[in-house]
Amino acid sequence: MAEAAPSGPLTAPPQTGSYLLRQLVSNLPLSADGQSSDVNITSVEVWNSNLYVGTSAAEILHFVLLPPDPNDPSGAPDAVMASRLQPSYTNATGDGVQQILLLPNVMKACVLCNNTLSFYSLPELSPVFKPFTCSWVGGVDLNAEDTGYSEDGVVVMVGLKSRLRLVRVSEEAPRSLKTIEYGGCLVSVRRDNFSCAADLHSYALLDLQNQQKIGLFPISSLDPEASHVGGAAEDITASQASHTPSRSASSASAHPRGAPHDDPRGHGRSTSLGIFGVGEHASLRPESPRPPVQRYGFDVPESLSRTMSPAPGRSRSREHPERTSSLQRKSTPSPEKPLPPPPEETPAKESEVPPKPAFIPLKPHVASPSPNEFLLTVGTTPSEPGVGMFVNLDGDMCRGSIQFSSYPDAILVDGSGIDLSASMGPDMDAEEGYVLAAVHHEQDDQIEYGVEIQRWDVDPEGDSSKEWLNLSSLQASSNANSDHVTVPLGMRTVIEPTDLVLSEISEKLTVKRLRLPQPDQAAARPQPDTTQTAADREFAERLSKLQTRLVLWAGNQIWWIVRNPLVTRLDARLQQAQSTPTGDGVKIQPNRRPLETVLGDIRGQEPRNEAEYLSLIYIRQKASILLFMELILRSNTNIIIFENEKRITEHALIEGEIDPRVILSLLPILNGEVVQGPEGIQISGGITTLVEEFLRQNDLSNMPAAINGPFGDNILHLVKRYLLFWKKRKGMASVTNDPFVFHSVDAALLHILLLLDRYSPPGPATAGSLRAELNELVGNEVDCFDRAVALLEQFKRLYILSRFYQRNSKASAKASNVLSTWRRILNGEADEGGEFVDGEMELRKYLSRIKDQSLVEEYGAWLASRNPKLGVQIFADDQSRVKFEPTHAVALLKKRAPAAVKEYLEYLVFGKKHTQYVNELITFYLDIVITELETSPTSREILLQTYETYRALEPPRPTYRQFITDNSVDSEWWNSRLRLLQLLGSNQPATSSYDVPAILARLEPYDKELVPEMIILNGRQGRHQDAIRLLVHGLGDFDTAISYCLLGGSSIFRPPSGYIPQSEIPSRAEQAVLFNYLLQEFLHIDDIAQRIDRTGELLERFGGWFDVADVLGLIPDEWSVDVFKGFLIQALRKLVREKSETGVAKALSGSQNLGVACEIVDRLEKLGPTVERVG
Q1: 1069-1106, pLDDT tens digit by residue?
Q2: Domains of the chain: which residue ranges?
Q3: C-alpha to C-alpha distances, 135 to 41, 179, 497, 506, nearest whole angstrom
Q4: CA-to-CA distance for 874 and 557, rounded, in angstroms?
Q5: 123: cis peptide before it, omega within 30°?
Q6: By 3-state DSSP, what share of the chain in percent is helix, strand and coil, each rounded to 5?
Q7: What is the reported pTM?
């Protein structure tokens, strides 16, 4: 029993190649006795869990492949030997089992052993038909669809000594269908009716339906027997077998491509003719072309026919021609390069041509990479480079040739190829086309074998486009080189694809929980969901399942050649870049340049299936994390990183869209913001391993985290932008709906902005600043309410906290949280940002916008007690959403902010012009002033002193109102008295409608201290003589006394710009009465000088309001006429003017009477007399 492959993943280093090996079986018992060591594997087939191995000992080993353990689908099957068969043969040629051809459609197997073909039934290999001798069997139509069992049988090609035979294999004995005159066939590949075959010397293209042949190329350019290969198409029907097909002169040349009229591709041979000419009298192609539907055999344009013109005779230089791009020899001059100068003459010995290498027959290889073309190999010697040439079904070279490092021992083609000239639709399953060639070379006197891999569907780019299959898994691999082994290699494409499971794919792509060190969180882990686990297992198996038809054998081992999936191929490159070349290979020290190269290689690459879609996501995410780790490690060494490197890393993170919590978990300070739900952080398994290993190797607590250092410059700004990218994508259909992701995003983003903004100058945010970003963040919805509050409290950003409350608090608690935070700031608690400029005004505006009356009362009263003038506006604002009745507001203020009551009433009266509250305000002022006078003799003295000081002023003196305003005392009672005077002396009807008797009764005990108030109240009551007496003798304010007479006492303390309605101004007669009172009071001034000056001035300025006789009766006789001469002159002038005016008026009246009398006389004359009869 053979040993199965190990079930776990190989421990070989990461493989970046296009293919990798997976062991099928090992330690095969090739020898029946188990002693012979010279028995080799010659052929391998795998079908329907059956392994058939042909050996050089002319035996077929049949193994049954038992499926692996269902719990370990990536494990290899167990190979149990079912039989050891020795096919029958006539002569022991030493080749052993040459071919195993399985025909599942008819459940038969063809085994060629020592040139004897035997037929067996499948799967047990029981003999069914009589064997017969042949040299080769195969040629099953590659274009035939696999429809399962077929009663019509399968047509195969059998190579006999002198011909090919098409044989139908079915349940009955094999039946010959057609014979093709093509002997010595060693290999053939068939597509429909066209077959590319090879004998010992050359390749040929066969039209099996029309039985025509075109010679293509010699296998070896050194083969002397292949000099006549190529030429016109030949008829190879059995009836023509006795005739030797003649060739034109051009066909006689072994390599007509060396002629001067070569095809530019180097393949100028006439490949096919629409009309075949056999013999010397071959007819030419008609000039008019046939329609395509009349195609017969190999059609080519007439200009390419070899029968058109003979080619020049053979020359020595044609014996070893150069095959265009296929075999470029060093001695072939480039047509674009000038010829070197002729060499100097040398002795005859030196000028001799080196001997030509001895001819060694080469094994022909034919493969068909696509339905319309064949790949052939040509060369010179086994150790010299070989060339692969592509021909289509017309025999034309259809694409550039490819080169092998040595002539291949075997070739395989894999993949349908990508046509770069065609538009690739999303439904087309494009697959790269590869050629795998088993080659060898001699190294240190020892032959080493390897598998060379290159693309066949794209133009080669020299040796850089080639790669070697990693053979390190083979036990016989060279220690120095993992690409070569010391034992021969065999390869084959088996009959049907086999499913393999690569556990590496599932390990990398399957979502796993990231285990982060969280010592502070001891939450109980939930029980795993068994349903989800089973689904994950099924999903992983589906992703990890691959198909392959390629096998490789060496010694007694057989391996699958598996196309390396995109994820493992690219991940291997990432693993190589995970450590620097100088590192130990264990510690994670990413190498930036290879990582950027990987990302550049996959940029713009579109996935072709689900596995590639997930693979590209995984690679982008892992590469971006490695780039980010590289930034972290370099920042730890205090290196400021170039901006382009940070930009590349940021772009990689955005393209990868890795869970931001993974990024945060790698950083000090911010790793505490990672929040996990019950399922934790679910990411790809390969990334989980990487992150956990990085955290194990690096202690985040020891990493430098200075905000003004490399950590802030290299990391924080980049992470901030990445988190903003994630925040903008919230709610999109393609984004996770895990709330813990955006909880972590918001918390970390807020933390970063607080760290960065800590060093910004205090004050409001400016456009584009970090503070503006912080305000924008908290001004929008934030998912981490409690954490945000804790962070803002920690950083003492109370104003930002209030903005956060405004946007994110519940409606019922929003205003309360905002106001309480603002009160903390106004009470002096530290706010590091300093943004709450004019905070009291902000509070006042906010209170006018909310509807909660209790909050408005609480914080309005608090503000009123703190700033009465501003606070009382809240209770009197008509635009506020909460309105207060003044009585309720006054009661509230008296209880909570007594000092603001006066301000409230003043604001109502003076600010809002609500005059209905004048009496309340006057009463409030009176209480303050009278209380002060009752309790403070000093205040009484101050008032009395002001009168004496004012009276002592030399004229011209200001009015008493102006005097006390300019010399005010900074005390509440003084300001209240000024306001009281303003209200009492106001001429507004509403403000002047106060209760005068009641006020006067309260002021009378202090009539000496409150003289201006008594003057105003006397004027209100019409006691003008008393008011004027107080103005003259109590205050000594003569100017105000004169104003009192002119204005009637309506507003003696009005503002300079105050307006007095015309109706309030007394008539001239009333003014004359008031001036007579004033004259009498002036005449009683104690100071004789003041008496004379005031009286003279009054009479001179306002003499028109006085009667001369009355004035002369009042003026003392002892006064000089000079005192009132101005008055007398003005009075006499007035008398003269009045007398003259009276005379003029009298004359005018007489004239008017005379005119009226004349008018009456004239009218009477016109009317005439009137006679009246009496009686």
Answers
A1: 888 888 888 888 888 888 888 888 888 888 878 877 87
A2: 938-948+957-1131
A3: 19, 15, 28, 47
A4: 94
A5: yes
A6: 40, 20, 45
A7: 0.73
